[in-house]
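Dear colleague,

Thank you for sharing your sequence with our group. We've completed the structure prediction you requested, and as agreed, I am returning the results in plain text so they can be pasted directly into your records. Please verify that the sequence below matches your submission; if there's any discrepancy, let me know and we will rerun it promptly.
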Amino acid sequence: MVFDLLEKNKYKQLASRFKTSIEDILRAVNVIKGLEPKPGSSYSSEEAVHVIPDVYIEESDGKLIILLNDEGIRGLNFQNYYRKLLANKKALGAEEQHFLEEKLRSAVWLLKSLDQRNKTIYRVAESILKFQEDFFRRDWSISSPLI
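Please find the predicted structure tokens below.
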């Protein structure tokens, strides 16, 4: 409500609400206008890097479960069009066939590597959860003390 009044320049109402003079409100407004909305920008011009987690821990029916974040790699696959080309030996020359076979091998290797990575991340998260379950069950609301 106060911000709405400030945004709409309703200084009389603000003065009345805070039981002060309009001059005091105007001085406060001038101070606010002079503030830097991004105070850390003077220390670095780099954009903030947002971390995307590999796993999420959620509670369901009283149990903590591990969810892998597969966004970005979901649906990664070798297109059927290229598989069909490889199956039809007469449609390709030897060089094209060799090229596509090599790309298919690379794609299969990548998919297996990603699968292995996911299994490793899951096992690590499982181990962390096993030893740190109390941490994940903690109520992290603002009113909750950290110690």
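Summary note from our side: Residues 71-137 form one domain.

Kind regards,
the structure core
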